[in-house]
Fold this protein.
Amino acid sequence: MDRILRDAFGAPDLEFAWETERTFVPEVQARIVYTSSHTCAAHVRVFAIDKKIWDRRQCCTGTLFMVAVDKDGRPLPIPQLEPSTDEA
């Protein structure tokens, strides 16, 4: 596969609210919030669900920027974001 996504800026900008336990179930929500000709950004929220009481808490949030590149590391064009709801 020629297209791969790589983190464009090294370590992503993630904010951790609290540390989870190993027994918690992770839930990850992500949506594309920005695109340019070769770059996209996804806003990510991570929740931890306590299986004992089914309590759900947000433990991490952040925005990840990625660049599409070919097998030689050259940028590739990506489809552009076309908002389809009022949220965008």
Summary: Residues 33 and 41 are 6 Å apart (CA to CA). The chain has no helices and five strands. Confidence is low (pLDDT under 50) at residues 1-11.
